[in-house]
Amino acid sequence: MTTTVAAPTTSSAPLAKAKVHRSWTQHGLLFVAPFLLLYVAFLVWPTLLGLRMSFSSVNIAGGNDNLVGFGNYAEAFGDPRMWRSLWNTLVFTVLSTIPLVLLGLLMALLVHNLRFVQWLWRLSFFGPFLLPSAVVSILWLQMIYPPEYGLLNGTLGTDILWLGDPGWAMWSVVLTTVWWTVGFNFLLYLAALQSIPQHLYEAAAIDGASAWDKLRSITLPMLSRTTALIVVLQLLASLKVFDQIYLMTGGGPEDSTRPIIEYAYDMGFTGYRIGYASAVSYILFVLIVVVSLAQLRLFRKREEASS
Description:
Helix content is 73%, strand content 0%. The termini are far apart. By secondary structure, the protein is an all-alpha fold. α3 packs parallel to α7 and α3 packs across α12. The longest helix has 42 residues. It is globular.
């Protein structure tokens, strides 16, 4: 008498894998649920609410909350004060981005090639970035820029109203911003420099390359990705400038330094026009998105061309 043993079926294997995958998905959702709730509550929902407000006449002092369509946007595009604040923002972005990138690179090259007390140089260059904007603003207001006893006028032997003259105010804010934030770019460049393989420089030295040749042919090309990242981050940060200008000049003198975020703040919390302020904010939002996409596309084309 023979007995037949049934062959094991494999149809249950996909079912078991599906159950395991579903279990992992459920556990993963449980882990990320607190973050998702906070993300939706404090970012997604306010963004959608602000977009809705930009199409309404909502007023912080009360009144009717009526939909006005694109009326707020039409008013903003026809407001010369909005264009002036947007122009100030663009001027600040150009004046601050270029030195912040170049000085960050030069400082990183200097520290990377030093062979003594590197920790002191790193601390000195990066230290100001750790200070709050209020501390930096008060420091420069009380010690550097006062026309009578300020360090800058005392050193140069001048009596310039650095923050009171429309011709100097923007340059003064840019100088303060560069001193305050260049340490972040310096740190990114220094980390990138330390990751460059040393054998590339050794091979170049064997071929008789000079220090300039190594910098031009090895260092700068290897830092191209870091430079792209720094430029994008710096553009975004400069377009969103508010703290130091608001604390140091209040947008003056004669609105020569007022950025678009401060203009939106004034319209919303001084003029009580939340709907109009939201429209101005979304104009800036679209500008930031366009600039970011343009920069990423430009650097991507450069990488494709170089490869």
